[in-house]
Amino acid sequence: MRVTEEQTIITIGLKQLFIRKRSDALSERVRRLLVRTLYTQPTSLAIGAVNGIVSSAITAAVSGMPILFYACIALTFVAVARVTAAFGLSPDDTGTSTRKLEIIYEIGAFSYAFLIGAICAIAMVHDVGAAVEVLMMANALGYGIGICARNAGSPTIALGQLALVVAPILLAALLGNSPIVHAALIVNLVLLFPAMASITLNVHRVLRDSIASAEKSAELAEKMKILARTDVVTGLANRAGLDHQLADIMAKRTDDQMLAMFWMDLDRFKEVNDILGHTVGDELLRQVAERLTEQVPENAMIARFGGDEFIVVTEVKHRADCEMLAGLVQEEINRPYYVNEERISVGCSMGIALMPEDAQDLNELMQASDLALYHAKINGRNQASFFTPVMTRNLVRRKEIEAELRAAIQKDELSIFFQPIVDLESGRIRTFEALVRWFHPEKGELRPDEFIPVAEETGVIITLGNWITAQAAKACAQWPEDVTIAVNLSPLQIKAPGAALGILNALREAQLDPSRLELEVTESLFLDDSDVTGKFIEELSSKGVRFAMDDFGTGYSSLGYINKFPFKKIKVDRSFVSGDSANKKSEAIIHAVAEMGARLGMDIVAEGIETIEQVRSVRDLGCTLGQGYYFSRAVPDYLAAMLLAQEREGDNPLRKVG
Ligand code: C2E
Ligand code: CA
Ligand code: CA
Fold first, then answer.
1. For a tag on the chain, would you pick the N or C end, based on fewer CB atoms within 10 A?
2. Smallest Cα–Cα separation from 216: which of 416, 30, 449, 472?
3. Whose CA is nearest to atom 2 of ligand 1?
4. What is the pLDDT of residues 131-146, one digit of tens each?
5. What DSSP line would sit under 508-531, residue for residue?
6. Nearest alpha carbon, ligand 1 atom 21
7. What per-residue confidence (pLDDT) applies to 473?
8. What's residue 1's pLDDT?
């Protein structure tokens, strides 16, 4: 757009108006500040008043003139009133009382100045004696000059007072009877005025400039402070801002007030950043911040706590308020985002803790909500967890497990147990599933459900997984050739570089044919749909390794994966076979899966078989294989070998299938 001359003039005009207004406002502030500081220092006023009263009383007494007595009384009255007002009235920041004080001060100052000048003038005109006249003159001019310095903050008051002191004396000098002396006095008095005016105005300017620059630095310091506490990406408070605001909230909080802290973490934000770049990531964070701000109550505090974490602190009346707010926020954050025409979805895990219920101080509140968030994440993400004291105990145990797991492998505390998978027609063992066990010297036997997730989180699963595969392959190599080994694989293991090679090496070292290894994977492996998984499965399948879909029915049960990858087996989760939720519906599901398996030439394994009735039921529904306590629990390698040996000798060591 072209800027016309007219526009420029208007802009300059407006700018000047603005500058003038600003400088007017500044002068006003400077004046107020200076006037206010004058009132808060009444000592000099009191000294001046005592001097004035004593000098004029002496003058009145020496002269014996009634007019000087009256003038002295008037002066005493004004002086006492001024000092009292200065001591008694204190200015505030509203400006109204400052303005009132100013008027009182001005009336007092002008009357005092005029009275002191007038007393001196009367003494001169009536020739009351040189000594007294000198006393009064010294007092009057001393006051007039002194007041110019003292009141430089308000040049009108300063110079007005000087004029009121000097004017009566000037008049007396004009009427005086000693021409040369009085002429000299007149010149002195007249010149005194511009001299003092220049001094006063200079002092005023210096004062004003230094106040203005002090104000400017204070303003700048305030701006810097705000900047240091703000997150540049979202405009929300950052960690420093959060600390500051929380300290503030805590200081104001009353004992019966309930505070809730929501600690949120975006799920899979790192992927957005890695795949779409940081600019898109930043924009996404901005949009999340916006949605959050819209959902939370107006006086809630929101901060971005580094990376993709947000914290909201708000007052609540009941726990139910938190549930409602958590639901709203999650729903809002889960809605898709559009950045650069890219549709992005993120989830949000949330930990919630309450004060005073879960925490006594700020530290505890943060710890509790952080812990609750951690639980929300390990429970499958995109959910909200309230803090419970059990979480603290769990965390302690987890931390211990985490610390001891690595060493446990070296200390031989881990071993592999084997659970048979049985042919439901013949009752013969077809496969053993390798299941890891940890015999902890103090804690006793630890369940894999407890330490495998820790191993996954800490990355130990890679070392552990390799060790398990190697041990399992070694054991299997001792068994008859038609018996295979099934090993559970964690998604993380597969994603580690060289994962397929590691497994092939373990097979080679154990001299086990790849076709005797079955890898059990769960659907969570396919959730992020990366190429790595496909390549891993392809590479091992081409060498003869087989794959089984584990825990089928508990996840997404997407038939897409079964179609896309070369699975040889589907393991129907034990919740469909035994356990409380197994019912007619699950029978229908098992039947459907079994039928599909038969058509695709896959084995269908029923997990968790505990009774003969279940054996019959799953076999009738079409399952070909079975696994469960009915046949055998997981046993050590020598017992597995013994089971196989007995079977080969003709007496079936397992319970019957028919
Ligand atoms: P999973 O792969 O589903 O393993 C079967 C689990 O069901 C085993 O529990 C087994 O002992 C149990 N089970 C077998 N038959 C029955 C039955 O009739 N009734 C009941 N109630 N349970 C039965 P375990 O050994 O505690 O393993 C739990 C989970 O830990 C496994 O579930 C697997 O996901 C994981 N896991 C175990 N060992 C390994 C391993 O070496 N590597 C990896 N990555 N995960 C493992
Ligand atoms: Ca398994
Ligand atoms: Ca399973």
1. N
2. 30
3. 488
4. 999 999 999 999 999 8
5. HHHT--GGGEEEEE-GGGGTT--H
6. 608
7. 98
8. 38
Q: Identify the H or E element spanning 424.
A: none
User: What is the rounded average pLDDT of the residues 2-30?
Assistant: 53
Give, for ligand 1, the residue of 435, 452, 471, 518 to mutate: max count of ligand atoms closer than 8 Å to Cβ: 435
> Domain spanning 412-648 has what CATH number?
3.20.20.450
Give the other-Cβ count within 10 Å of 147's Cβ.
25
Q: Which helix (H) or strand (E) holds 498?
A: none
Nearest CA to ligand 1 atom 38: 435
Residue span(s) of the chain under CATH 3.20.20.450 come to: 412-648
Nearest CA to ligand 1 atom 42: 488
Q: What is the CATH superfamily name and number for domain 239-387?
A: Reverse transcriptase/Diguanylate cyclase domain (3.30.70.270)
For ligand 1, whether the C-beta of 490 sits within 6 Å is yes
Tokens at 195, concatenated = 């001299």
Distance 531 CA to ligand 2 centre (A): 23
How far apart, in whole angstroms, are the C-alpha atoms of residue 41 and residue 52?
A: 18
Q: For the residues 50-63, what does the mean pLDDT come to?
A: 93
Q: What confidence score (pLDDT) does residue 89 get?
A: 65
**Contact of 348 with 263, CB cutoff 8 Å:** no
In terms of Cα–Cα distance, which of 500, 460, 530 is closest to 268? Answer: 530
Widest CA span of the chain, in angstroms? Answer: 154
Residue with CA nearest ligand 1 atom 33 = 488
Q: What is the pTM of this model?
A: 0.59
Q: Which residues surround ligand 2, an ion (CB under 5 A)?
A: 488, 520, 550
CB-ligand 1 contact for 452 (6 Å cutoff): yes
Of the pLDDT bands very low, low, confident and very high (cuts 50, 70, 90), residue 84 is confident
Q: What's the rounded Cα separation, in Å, for the pair 169 and 175?
A: 10
Nearest-atom index, ligand 1, CA of 455: 44
Q: Given CA atoms 65, 66, 68, 69 in this order, what sign does their dihedral have?
A: positive
Instruction: Give the residue range(s) of CATH 3.30.70.270 domains in the chain.
Output: 239-387
